[in-house]
């Protein structure tokens, strides 16, 4: 039994140079836990609010109010409580702000606090965070299958191309370490190809190469070429994963592909994506239609759900109730889990569990605005059986997560890599 002595919030800065919230939870035995809130750019309408001060200073993005909420009501409510009872402490946070989107406390205030509590509890128990998570939720830990961005796009690259993430997965790798090696080869092969065309122009927000392409499909063709240049046969050990992030370019069933100067209705968008699924070795696709396009998501899942992983991000916003609705609608077959979309660890774990209970897969994910915080590497390992999406293979706010997984691999053993198991329901798993 170790009680919370103090909760202290401060303003720190994220990978885009924007203010964000860091929280220290100190225990009566002197142990401390710390976590930092990430921030999204392509945010779902139904996710927890990132409380910002507005006004002209710091482009309206200051977090003084969120920090004050940590140091005021949150600290007062948590002081003296037992740290190991994560769900009771998260319930206290939810009780302080029962609004669905946490708009009075701010999801940034609650998520940093909730994760700092998790860290403090692990430290008090003398366990690494991944082990604490596994023990807390009765799970068998395993190293996740990564999704790694090679080209950025959408809201992370000035909307230079419409599609947001062109990624690879290496389900055929024997270890997490091997995934890193293959990714290095593919990432730099892609850079070499861009350079040879005179199109190398730095990186997007998550470290993927800047998308100087004439069409969305040219990015896909280049990704295939990069996989081949790296000495791999596309669809063999390495497969493609896309985040369409369609809410960013569509509303009310009308989608505008700015780069190609085309407008599509939901059916035409689904046909276009279906053409890509036929032409390229794509094993996973995220938010293929907009967050408000339930009819489109059901149609897409009915057509392709038996052979591709269909991830709901903006569509499900890490919300267990929305996951359960989608299960009964037969929309999606995988949930993206971003702790700050939910606002607390317990709610994020609920969404993860709701998905797995339905036979779905789950991908723990970073945001496009990140920091040195490594909590999600531990969360995905501790919950086990999953996948991890962190961005690209460059920039330290990304590499810090991959590197943390390698440290966990040393403790857990290379055999604890989940491999391609999460993709067993896709064509990849059947081949
Ligand atoms: P975001 O994007 O963090 O900018 O919202 C990540 C994603 O869409 O998966
Ligand atoms: Zn997404």
Q: Which runs of at least 5 residues are low in confidence (pLDDT < 50)?
A: none
CATH class membership of the largest domain: Alpha Beta
Estimated share of beta-strand residues:
15-25%
CATH fourth-tier homologous superfamily of the largest domain: Enolase-like C-terminal domain
Helix content: 25-40%
Which class of secondary structure composition applies to the elements?
Answer: alpha/beta
Q: What is bound: which ligands?
A: 2-phosphoglycolic acid, zinc ion
What is the CATH architecture term of the largest domain? Alpha-Beta Barrel
The run of helices and strands is EEEHHHHEEHHEEEEHEHEHEHHEHEHH
Distance between the termini: 50 Å
Rounded mean pLDDT is 97
Strand neighbour order, sheet with most strands: 4-5-6-10-11-12-13-14
CATH fold assignment of the largest domain: TIM Barrel
Q: What is the overall silhouette? A: globular
Overview of this protein structure:
It is a single chain. This protein is α/β, with parallel strands linked by helices and 431 residues long. The protein folds into 2 domains: 4-126, Enolase-like, N-terminal domain (Enolase-like, domain 1, 2-Layer Sandwich); 145-427, TIM Barrel (Alpha-Beta Barrel). The protein contains 14 helices and 14 strands. It has helices at 64-78, 86-96, 107-125, 129-137, 176-196, 216-229, 266-279, 294-304, 320-329, 339-342, 345-357, 375-383, 396-412, 427-430, and strands spanning 4-13, 19-27, 32-36, 145-152, 165-169, 239-243, 250-251, 254-257, 262-265, 282-286, 309-312, 334-337, 361-365, 387-391. The strands form 3 sheets. Strands 4-5-6-10-11-12-13-14 form an 8-stranded mixed barrel, surrounded by 6 helices. Helix 1 crosses helix 3 (107-125). Bound molecules: 2-phosphoglycolic acid and zinc ion (ZN). Residues 243, 245, 286-287, 313 line the site of zinc ion.
């Amino acid at each position: 039994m170790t009680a919370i002595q103090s909760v202290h919030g401060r303003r720190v800065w994220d990978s885009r140079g924007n203010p964000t919230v860091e929280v220290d939870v100190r225990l009566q035995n002197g142990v401390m836990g710390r976590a930092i809130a990430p921030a999204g750019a392509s945010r779902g309408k139904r996710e927890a609010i990132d409380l910002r001060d507005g006004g002209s200073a710091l482009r309206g993005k200051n977090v003084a109010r969120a920090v004050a909420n940590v140091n005021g009501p949150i600290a007062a409510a948590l002081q003296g409580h037992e740290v190991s009872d994560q769900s009771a402490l998260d319930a206290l946070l939810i009780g302080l702000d029962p609004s669905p989107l946490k708009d009075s406390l701010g999801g940034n205030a609650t998520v940093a606090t909730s994760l700092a509590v998790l860290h403090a509890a692990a430290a008090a128990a003398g366990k690494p965070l991944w082990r604490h998570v596994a023990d807390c939720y009765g799970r068998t830990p395993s190293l996740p299958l990564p999704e790694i961005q090679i080209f950025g796009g959408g809201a992370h690259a000035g909307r230079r191309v419409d599609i947001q993430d062109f990624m690879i997965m290496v389900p055929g790798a024997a270890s997490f370490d091997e995934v890193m090696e293959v990714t290095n080869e593919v990432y730099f092969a892609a850079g070499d190809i861009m350079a040879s065309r005179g199109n190398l122009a730095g990186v997007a927000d998550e470290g993927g190469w800047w998308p100087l392409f004439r069409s969305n499909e040219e990015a896909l063709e280049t990704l295939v070429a990069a996989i081949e240049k790296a000495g791999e046969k596309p669809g063999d050990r390495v497969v493609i994963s896309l985040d369409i992030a369609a809410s960013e370019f569509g509303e009310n069933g009308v989608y505008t592909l700015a780069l190609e100067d085309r407008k599509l209705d939901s059916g035409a968008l689904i046909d276009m994506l279906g053409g890509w699924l036929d032409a390229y070795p794509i094993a996973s696709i995220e938010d293929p239609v907009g967050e408000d396009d339930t009819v489109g998501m059901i149609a897409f899942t009915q057509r392709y759900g038996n052979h591709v992983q269909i991830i709901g991000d903006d569509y499900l916003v890490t919300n267990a109730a929305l996951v359960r609705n989608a299960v009964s609608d037969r929309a999606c077959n995988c949930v993206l889990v971003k702790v700050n979309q939910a606002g607390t660890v317990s709610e994020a774990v609920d969404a993860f569990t709701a998905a797995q209970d339905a036979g779905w897969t789950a991908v723990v994910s970073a945001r496009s605005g990140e920091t040195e915080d490594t909590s999600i590497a531990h969360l995905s390992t501790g919950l086990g059986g999953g996948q991890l999406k962190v961005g690209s293979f460059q920039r330290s706010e990304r590499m810090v997560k991959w590197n943390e997984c390698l440290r966990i691999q040393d403790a857990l053993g290379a055999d604890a890599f989940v491999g391609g198991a999460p993709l067993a329901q896709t064509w990849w798993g059947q081949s």
